[in-house]
Every structure is written in structure tokens, then in C-alpha cells.
Amino acid sequence: MKTNIDTLISICAGDAKSHELMNLLHISPKFSAWEEGRVSRAELAQALNMMLFDGILQRVPTGKDYTSDVIARGGKVMLDHGALRTVRWFGIGDLPPGEAALTRILKPLGYRLQGRYPLDRLSMTGRSYAHRDDPENISQFFVSELHPERFSREFQEAVTRVLGDSVDPLTPGAVSLLNELDRDGTLSMQQATELLPVLIKCFDRQHGIPALSDYDILKSESAEMAWIATEGNVFNHATDRVVDVFQTAEEQRQLGRPIKPQVEVSGSGRVRQTAFKAATVLREFRTDTGGVIMREVPGSFYEFITRDQMTDVNGVQQLDLSFDTGNAQGIFKMTANA
User: Fold this and answer.
1) Which domains does the chain have, with CATH numbers?
2) What was the pLDDT predicted at 276?
3) Phi, psi at residue 273, to the nearest 5°?
4) How far apart, in whole angstroms, are the C-alpha atoms of residue 322 and residue 131?
5) What is the DSSP string of 71-112?
6) So what's the pLDDT on residue 337?
7) What is the DSSP string of 137-175?
8) What angle do CA 103, 245, 305 make, to 5 degrees?
């Protein structure tokens, strides 16, 4: 008998895709029991994360190759978090500015703010969101906001031009369902299968083809904003929680895969991260003469993380789910250096 998560993904993406993802990804033991016909916020959050992770595998060949190896040896991927980039700027079409475009979705799904991380070297602010119902087993979201006001006027004007035609994929019907989910914590299976495809669309690029001249302006001051210009709100990276990130990195290096030379270690020493080099993707740009040309640009990437246990203020042992500003700024450079 199919679980609610399996049913959700099957209806949205087909039985084959659901079977693939259910076999590949770690699923919390809490999901082994479910209420038939009713989908909890945690189940919907898990299904969304699995579909967004599948998007990373379609865009990042090294991630796809790595997960194929995991499956071949009978393992599972523990999705730790997905990272997204937003722009806190007004006048960007129909889309709410900054992380508000995403938190209006995350909060009804059961997420709450876990931590705030100033990314001053990048003129960004990062915030992590953990799930209330099962924070160690349901993937977190790391949402960063870029602050155009910290850049030149020319840069700000380019941001406005690039993002000015943004559309809002969240339909009135979806807003209504999110309100109901926020109130009750559950939806019917039919409601959940109507909502999930709309939520997936919210994690995509919502603006049109950028002008190459604007892209060059943005790239000259912020590789992160240039990335947003071509990729939008897709997962910048998805992160696999592994037992020993140093060992994993060395194994991937021996296989000849383009992995970061060094592992980023948090100030506490409990959080260690590294990543594959960002994939290179072809994107369209508008020219000054009204034509469209293709250029290779940095896309998304696949990350690895190891988290140690810590003792909380009540003396309870739990997984350290925090992030580290230094780690994050180092990892973000994977797209700048691609």
C-alpha cells in the first residue's frame, strides 16, 4: 500500500519517478504511519523537497552520477537542506520581494525560522528554516536575500530591469489552500495534489530573458546576483548529509569529479561542508539589437555536509542543525568560480 508521500509524487510525476525517489532518499520513520486520504503538512513538505531535489539531479550531472553510485551500493541520500537565493528589492513585478516570496509557502508547510546569518562579504543575509514536526529528518531550507542597495546605482537599475517583469506563480486557489494548511495542518489528498505542482513552480525563475548588457553589469559587482538573473529561485544547491565529508570528498576526488579543494569547517567544528563545482548551463540573453543569443553560465551544484551531535541548553543531545557564515560564503563561491 502506498504511503501518502508516494501517492503525492506518483500523481504529480508518475509512478516511475516516485519509485526512483522513494528508493533514493532517506524517508523519516515517522512517515511509516499515515492517515489515508489526509495529507499532513510534514508529508507535503517532504514530497516538495523530493521533487525539488529531483530538479537538482536533472541540472547537475555530477550530482546525478554520485546518486547513481549511492543506489548501486544500496545506500540512501539524506537530504539535509536546499539553498535558494532571493533579492530584497521592490518594483520586481508581481513577486513579493526577497525571501517573502518563499516564506509564505514554507510557514504553512510547518517551517519556522531557525537561524539568521549575515553574509556581509556577499552583501546578502541568509536565514535557515527547519521543520517543526521532524527537524532532523525533513530537509531544511537555507534562504538568502541579496541587498541591491549596497551596490552601485547602475547595478540597482540593472536589477530592476532584469526582475521587473517577474510573475507570481502562486494562484489564488493555492493561497487559499496554504491558508487552510496553516490553520489545520492537513489537506485532503485531492487538495494536496492540486497544491504541490503550484508550489514546485514557485521554486523556479519567475522573470523573463535578461539582457546580456544587464547581466554583465550585475556580474561585475555580484556573481550571486548574476546567478539569480539566469536561474531565479531554483535550488542553488541541494545538500547530502554524509557520515564523513572528508572521506566522501576524497572518494569523489579519486573518481575525477570536480569537487572543492578544501572542506569548510564551522567555528564550532561541528559542521563541515564541501561541494562539487557548479554545473555549466546554456542560457538565453537578449542583445541590444533585439536578438537572442546563448551563453554558458554557472548553474546549480551538489553539496555534502557532516553534522555532529551537540548538547542543548537542557542537556539533551541533538544534531547540530545550525549553519556557519564562513562556511556559507565559501560554499556560495562554487557558482562564482564555475
Assistant:
1) 4-336 (3.10.180.50)
2) 96
3) -140, 145
4) 13
5) HHTT--B-EEEEEEEEE--S-STTSPSTTHHHHHHHTTTTEE
6) 60
7) TSPEEEEEEE-GGGS-HHHHHHHHHHHTT------HHHH
8) 5
Residue with cell 552520477: 65
What does the pLDDT average to over 26-40? 95
Q: What is the mean pLDDT of residues 289-310?
A: 96
What are the DSSP calls for 238-273, one per residue? EEEE-S-HHHHHHHHHHTT--B-SS-EE-TTSSEEE
Q: What is the mean pLDDT of residues 13-27?
A: 97
**What is the percent of the chain where pLDDT is above 70?**
99
Cell output for 166: 517577474
Look up residue 52 and give its three cell numbers.
525539488
Q: Are 180 and 187 in contact (CB under 8 A)?
A: yes
Q: How far apart are CA 251 and CA 315, in angstroms?
A: 36
For residue 338, is pLDDT > 70?
no
pLDDT the model gives residue 149: 97
